[in-house]
Amino acid sequence: MGIITEDMLAIVESAHLCFAATVTPDGRPNLSPKGTIRVWNDDHLFFLDIASPGTRANLARNPYIELNVVDERSRRGYRFFGRASLHAGDDVFNDAMKRVFAEERANYPVASVVLIAVERAEPVVSPGYLHVASEAEMRQAWKERRAALDEVFERHIAAHPFEPLL
Predict the structure, then answer these.
(1) CA 8 to CA 75: how far, in whole Å?
(2) Residue 140: which domain range?
């Protein structure tokens, strides 16, 4: 059995978003969201490098990475620590793209695939559980809270539409 448990798999599949921490050449942290995080196998995670030249350059110099994946409603997740390898034009690249594109029913340019050999994982649990009795209660509370937050943000974007600069 590998490091990645059934619960970790469920969290990654639920979130589909992680934050990846790398280190810049001058030793500063670089934190970047990744919306294509997936489980590769029992010991590896991966994400598609769509628009991450900084992350890619940092990993080319220093392969150590930390990923934080948290289910928004359950307020729990995992920190994954390991070493990343970059893949372009090889079997890992092709398989990862096929998996994500089939699931998303989309196709877009990908610079590389970042494959992380997970060396260890640690749980992330919200201190909200100090006053909430169960995960079901936490999820219900955040479902309601999320709806209220979305309503406010919908009004904001109606007045101030986002215009991507891509």
Answers:
(1) 13
(2) 129-160
